[in-house]
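Summary: Need help interpreting a holo structure output

Steps to reproduce:
1. Submit the protein chain below together with the SMILES for 2-acetamido-2-deoxy-beta-D-glucopyranose.
2. Request a joint structure prediction with the ligand placed.
3. Inspect the structure token block that comes back.

Expected: a single structure record containing both the chain and the bound molecule.
Actual: see attached output.

Input attached:
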Amino acid sequence: MKESTFSLLFFVGTCLGLKLPPDFRRCRRTDSNTDLCLKNAIQSSLPVLAKGLPEFDVDSIDPIRIPSLTIGEGKGAVQVIQYYKNVEIHNIKSIIMNNVKSDIKDDGFSIVANGLLKNCVFEADYNLNGNILVVPITGNGTCTITLVNTKVTFDITAKVFTRNEKEYLEIKRFDVSLEPEKAEYNFRNLFNGDPTLGDTMNKILNDNWKDVLDDVKTGYEEALSIIFRRIANLIFKKVPLDEIF
Ligand SMILES: *[C@@H]1O[C@H](CO)[C@@H](O)[C@H](O)[C@H]1NC(C)=O
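--- attached output ---
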């Protein structure tokens, strides 16, 4: 179950439209250019979501904080289970939206939103013990993974449901996909702090960033999908549909 982050952002903007400054946008399905309206609404919602929405129990999306995250082994290059704690994902609010396509019906909607994120920075405590590219890797420390010039796609579907005679939206799917131009890895304290082995391993990871990332990318994307779907539902389940569209 996944969906597109950006429509989430848009909805945050729309449902708060009544309480926020007048530059906050709200889109109608009868607008002549709904997709353009949605794109602008999503874009202007990003800084609002970055602050968090305590009234909806929604934490900030910049950084996104995840107490613990486990990414399973890949099928190719990455033969290691990756354990992370105290994860912070930075810069989501800097996404530049460039295209939104929507299909809005009486019983639900689907939205595909594309954007570009210049530098997405993932920081965490890590614990690894296995093989990457057939080379043994072991370590426990802090790491920084930077995704450079990432094309981000959110693919969202929602259905209308009725509660106490009012209509609400439930987000069914919130797929996130990430296509970076490059990934940069820095795992500190690999091999119990052995600097030569650690530098060599970081170089191997960076020289082969694409094979390493592709093998486990869906793990990261699914983590983001779950977070965004959860946030979207925290908001939509409290705001009747007629306040949104
Ligand atoms: C790293 O090791 C310490 C001490 O054994 C442990 O408390 C910590 O949870 C480990 N880090 C991770 C990310 O598992």
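--- end attachment ---

Reviewer comment: The chain has four helices and eight strands. The first strand starts at residue 64 and ends at 71.
Status: needs-info
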